[in-house]
Amino acid sequence: MSESSTPAPKKVVILGSTGSIGTSALKVAREIPERMEVVGLAAGSRADELAAQAREFGVKHLAIAEEALCDSVRRGSPEGSVVHGGQEGLRDLARLPEADMILIAITGTEGLQPALDAIEAGKDLAVASKEILVMAGEIIMSAARKAGVRVLPVDSEHNAIFQCLEGNAGGAGAVRRLILTASGGPFRTAPVESLKDVTPEEALNHPTWKMGPKITIDSATLFNKGLEMIEARWLFDVDMNRVEVVVHPQSIVHSMVEFVDGSVLAQLSTTDMCFPIQYAVTWPDRVAHSLKPLDLASLGRLDFEEARGEDFPALRLARDAGNRCGTLPAVMNAANEVAVAAFLKEKIAFPRIWGLVEEVMSTHEVIDSPSLEALIGSDREARITAEQIVRGIEN
For a FRET experiment, which of 29, 101, 209, 329 has its CA 20 to 30 Å from that of 23? Predict the structure, then answer.
């Protein structure tokens, strides 16, 4: 592409700028300022870090979830900054008139309403939060199609599938399988009987990725991959029976697509979230960067294994939820969030995460084709049920 035809920088709002995905997105912005301009930043409670980011990038539209910290952010931010607070602050930034793209990098379901606001405002979405598509994938994708906006995946696995599907004139009908790769987490080879003694510190020691605590525990239980299965079902409009998982401990092949003619395309790169973030921002262009290139010769080998579905039942639970749809994926996700928090506080044992989620799912009365209100209500009820179970375990 000639210099004269280079597109103007994409104006991006980052919701969740102080988390692992958000800080990686800012690394990308530093690397390719001619293609990415940060125009809005939002964080949960790290006021000083948010203000420092605002100063570095000259951003004057900010939001912080803890409203009591608004004044602190304002004092440390560039002169003339507008600081929004609470959930409404996230929604305000999602609708920011000058933004082209909203990057949803908020853990959990807090990004759901901002995502819908962004779509309604005609903004493209870059989605790093699995939970919003797990909880409301049908609503999100339907709204995006209606508004004519793009939903671009930032998860390395879904971004890999997105890249493998580019140029596929046959559409979803030409796809036999989407194959998500999983590292297997820190307990990939651990005997099942040892899992009852796992500590939070051990579960947080991921072998290949540096991530936040919730997603790291999800990787250890394989719920992270279960959530990704449901996310892929909505992003790429395929049935759950065409979404599979294979364990790949090196985390170099980020995912694969098998087509009906037997051909398999894979996307490979080193383990750095800057790769998929940059591609989501610059798509459909590929832009040079200084990230470490892949050295296949030094790798020597790439291994693949069948996932231990019986020992790690998260994949079965996710497939059940994705096949049933309705409110069940939202319930599974909510129960898992409560279970992970309880495990991190050492209130429940590691294997109890799966048991708690299954118990909540089994007691839920599924609502088909739910409204957003029904999804939010089911999410809330699932959390209450899960918390009651945790309290029963403690007592």
Answer: 329
